[in-house]
Amino acid sequence: MGEHIKPLSMINGNGLINFGWARQPLFDVNMAAAASVHRHIFSTWRLKRWEYFYVATPTVFFAAQIAHLGYLANLTAYLYDIERNVLLERTSNIPFGTDVVLANHPRQGTTSARAGTSKYLQFEMTPEGKHVTVDWPRFNGQQDLHADLLLGWPKELESLSVVDPLRNGRFAYTTKVTCMPATGAIRIGQERWECNRSEALGELDWSRGFLESVTVWKWATASGRTRQGQTVGFNLCSGFHDGGDNENAVVVDGHLTKLGLVSFTYDQAHIMQPWHVNSSDGRVDLSFIPMVDRQSYTDAGPLQSHIHQLVGRYSGTVTSEGSDPIAITDFVGAAEDHYARW
């Protein structure tokens, strides 16, 4: 484990996994070539793949996801109108993931999914960044959703790609890209939200894993601009990638600082009360004030999940390598309390 600086295969020729992390998506994500995957009788069901993004502005938080769980694909889109304190969301399940196309690399290809004749999500890599299209009929009553967004991904923007071991021969890969300047528009019915580079920032979560049947994590993320004009983003997670190099990092003006383990303090029985997130190396000290809780529950025999995905505001300090603490004030971002048996 440790930092990689040259392109490499995630799985080597002997079926063994090259663990570690990189500041760019250098890994060839050939997950199915792992020896542990070949040995598992239900490997198709244990391979989990998803691509998620969000865009945040002072007035709106918009997110969408295409997830393939092996036996099922899940499509999600949601919009939180911050000014009105209104959450709109829709989900759709596709048995066996029919008509879902998954890109093989976070910086290449297209991930897309179609449900029915007119519900369509597409995340396409272009030279400028991720081009996102979401068409969802009757998203809010009779009102259709249409989103056309570009999340800028310049080559000089550092991100975090990491391959970490899990228990029982399992492993997980993720690329997290923060501080992506966003342009475009989101429309529901006649209402329209514009995104421009001066105030809209997003994150991409491109993840793959040969996962255990039960997964649990806490997640915190946001991007924003400080009062001094710095562009700052962070991705923090506890309970999932902790056994390896972890997926914790802060990006300041395009440069990434890798962090140690983090801890989350909050009341699960009162999830809308303030959270606190801090890192073991002292580089992160953040409070999170939730504004809305997007909950989802599944209870289908052996398949169960209980997920709180919150939108709120982060304040506190982060410290990049070689700098003094940087003040974060009211960055709009997300936090998640995730339990799944899948």
Protein model, in words:
This protein is an all-beta fold and 342 residues long. It has one domain (8-341). It has helices at 35-39, 43-46, and strands at residues 8-9, 20-22, 27-28, 47-56, 60-68, 72-81, 86-95, 100-101, 110-115, 119-126, 129-140, 143-152, 160-165, 171-188, 191-195, 201-210, 214-225, 231-238, 249-252, 255-258, 262-265, 275-279, 284-300, 303-318, 326-341. The strands form three sheets. Strands 2, 4, 5, 6, 7, 8, 9, 10, 11, 12, 13, 14, 15 and 16 form a 14-stranded antiparallel beta sheet that branches. The longest helix is centred in the N-terminal third of the chain and has 5 residues, at 35-39. The model has no long low-confidence stretch (mean pLDDT 94). Pfam families: DUF2804.
| Number of strand segments | 25
Strand and helix order: EEEHHEEEEEEEEEEEEEEEEEEEEEE
Which range best describes the helical content: under 10%, 10-25%, 25-40%, 40-55%, 55-70% or over 70%?
under 10%
Low-confidence stretches: none
Largest sheet: 14 strands, antiparallel
* Category from helices, strands and their pairing: mainly beta
Name the overall outline.
Answer: globular
Overall number of structural domains: 1
pLDDT averaged residue by residue = 94
- Give the termini separation: 28 Å
Helix count? 2
Q: Strand-residue fraction?
A: over 45%
Radius of gyration from the alpha-carbon trace, in angstroms: 19 Å
Protein name: DUF2804 domain-containing protein
Organism: Candidatus Cryosericum hinesii
InterPro entries: DUF2804
